[in-house]
Amino acid sequence: MRPTAISEEPGLTVGVEEEFLLTDPVSGETTARADAVLARTRSLPMPSGAQFHLELLGTQVEAASAVCTDLPTLGRRLAAARSELAASARREGALLISSGTAPLPGPLPPASEGERFARIRDLYAGVVRDYEVSGCHVHVGVADRDTAVAVVNHLRPWLPTLLAVSANSPHAGGADTGYASWRMLQQARFPGAGLPPWFPSAEDHDRETARLAECGVVVDPAMSFWLARPSPHLPTVEVRAADAVPTAEEALLQAALTRGLVRTALAELAAGRTASRVPNDQVGAAAVWAAARYGLAGDGVDPVGERRVPAARLAAALLDHVAPALEETGDLDRTRTLLGRVLREGTGADHQRRAAAGGMRAVVEALARRTSPHPTSANGDEVDADGRMDGIGAGTAGPSPETLR
Fold first, then answer.
1. Do the beta carbons of residue 399 and residue 49 sit within 8 Å?
2. What stretches pass through the bilayer (predicted)?
3. Could you give the residue ranges of the DSSP H alpha helices within 92-240?
């Protein structure tokens, strides 16, 4: 996404990067077919406007959505991209699943080619050898890097709740880990993971990332493992708290809540209100851990109030916090419906555990159905996140084809 693609109104443009796993339809294990799947996407028309990329390991692929300014369009684009990628995977004998971790890992996956991937493998060694971990990243456009850093300061207390709402990685190695988001425990093995520090300016932020690179714990200043950051390449705030979520609707929910948080932060900054400080870094880390452990099914931690609170109540408080911003963009009712469904029916982790009554292959099959339940129609139309046909493939006007990369 080039800077010229950002709307004149900060906090309006939004895009989503979704990471997916490829699994064998017979065994349910992950399968290293990313190169073939992505080659197929390059040979076919992809009306969603998404771009598809390799990840660190050959069992993973990423879809980066087109930049959108309204949630209905983004929802259609997310569903369409999933449909396109799932269809390419099926043609290569694989199933596409959206899960924070692999329920059934296969043989040690090969690494993807590329100089930066090679540097990551060399630096982190065994930590990334089988790192089949997937997230859902949301970008929201802002005016400049100083604004991005100030916005991230405002987002910090809410990042554990975004994780709890998304939790979708209870399994690893074919067994239940006891956590709703095992992905977050895997990610905690990297230096500097978790809540980002509070920074007074972009200069201070960039000085810290350069220091980490100089210390040799990240491959370059563009790398960090914080759950939110100013994008190193784009004029956006990038929020990376969420697991890869099972449905396009839940990815849209993450986009709605994240954009609502950014717009709320921009309003607070315009009014001269500084961000609430998380007073104790250990309590902040505890909030991330509790979200990973329980998702929405137990207690969370209020990192500002430094107390235990039911996670569902924290999710409701998040919606209340961003409600004026969502009302402003016409998204409040839709977001309330999407969040209410997760609170009522459970997170992806809850769905995976219910499916596990039929064995781990049943988990993989259920994930594949939820990842892309609607095939591409005969005339090239796609099905949106509400199950309605969208004429993207028939030339319906949409957002700029500029993408997040």
1. yes
2. none
3. 115-124, 126-129, 145-155, 159-166, 182-187, 202-215
pLDDT reading at 155 higher than 50: yes
Residue 165 φ then ψ, to 5° = -65, -30
| Whether pTM exceeds 0.70 | yes
Q: d(Cα 227, Cα 160) in Å, to the nearest integer? A: 9
Each as own residue / partner, the long-range contacts of residues 270-277 (CB below 8 Å, 24 or more positions apart, any chain) are 274/153, 275/150, 275/153, 275/154, 275/156, 275/198, 276/154, 276/157, 276/304, 277/198, 277/304
Provide CATH code, domain 13-394: 3.30.590.20
Instruction: Tell me the helix, strand and coil percentages in the chain, rounded to 5.
Output: 45, 15, 35
Q: For residue 25, what is the DSSP state?
A: T
Report the candidate in 133, 34, 70, 8 with the shortest Cα–Cα distance to residue 335: 70
List, in sequence order, every beta strand (DSSP E) within 291-368. 299-302, 307-310
Return the domain boundaries, the chain.
13-394
Question: Which contiguous run of DSSP H or E holds residue 349?
Answer: helix 348-355
Q: By C-alpha distance, which of 329, 283, 328, 332 is closest to 308?
A: 283
Instruction: Count other Cβ atoms within 10 Å, centred on residue 289.
Output: 19
Q: What is the pLDDT of residue 374?
A: 66
Could you tell me the two tokens for 326? 């969502």
Q: How many CA atoms lie within 13 A of 285 on its CB side?
A: 9
Q: Which residue has the tokens 């997916």?
A: 20
Q: Which residues, other chains included, contact 14 with Cβ-Cβ below 8 Å and sequence gap of 6+? A: 67, 68, 69, 71, 74, 138, 139, 140, 141, 255, 258, 259
d(CA 330, CA 317): 19
